[in-house]
Model the fold of this input.
Amino acid sequence: MKTNRVSNVFFISAFIWSGSLVAQSDSSYAKRTPWGDPDISGMWSYASLTPLQRPERLGEKEFYTPEEAAQIFANTQQDAPDRPGDVGSYNYQWFDRGEVSADFRTSLIVDPPNGRLPVTEATIASQRERAEYLRDHSADSWLDRTNWDRCLTYHGVPPVSSGYNNSYHIVQNKDFVAIHVEMIHDVRIIPIDDRPQLHDNIRQWNGDSRGYWDGDTLVVRTANFSDKTRHRFPSSRNTVAVERFRRVDEDMIDYSFTIEDPTVYTQPWTAIRPMPRLPDYKQYEYACHEGNYAMTYILRGARAEEARALEQNTSEN
Done:
């Protein structure tokens, strides 16, 4: 469901990138909860046309020009041409992909400075092997489809901007912060009362989150991801996500996350993604496939293709 269009001015980050450090703005938002914590409640957008990784074709180009950023946005305001045999998709008015960050950065990743995921050679080889397998086995069974296709969950914690439903609904009390992500309706319940992390043998789709206040910044550490969890970046059961939320004014949360996983990456990496407020926004249900009939027909279509291939091979022999 399309979210309200947010002016690009709201994407001005209060983070300042300098060398290899991300420094938060000195500004402090005065609004507090009745019990004294910073008030980060409300509806917030994580939509962004700035990609997670810097496209390889851009090389060391760290920033778009204003004209390039405007053209990237303009390209999202028109329908793509039909492709032969394509059944079509939503028109552009259904989508809300956000805009390029106001600082015109070419990637959300700020560390490493090249804006690229620092994956190991083993990770690259594993991804290549998986892609080659799926080329011929993309629908052998439902297990070959993504968790998103299967209407189980989205892409883990933290989510990466999609075409729509890019919204965080944050609710808080003295002991918990809850984040509702209406992209396959996931709700994260984050204790902030010093309770220990779950035992390592307890694994969950979106991991196990624990939070604490560092001054005016909510720091959330999420571990204990399931072996079946699939992020929109390489990950494993050893992945740890550390998020930071700091509200800097009425309409902006400065947000960053760091991913740690020595089995996948050569070093931790950090991305920044300012989240503007969505005033008067209604969060509509993301109903996935309404019974997931699409999965039935994906698998049925694959069986029909196999039958045709077998019939053709039999006739040729």
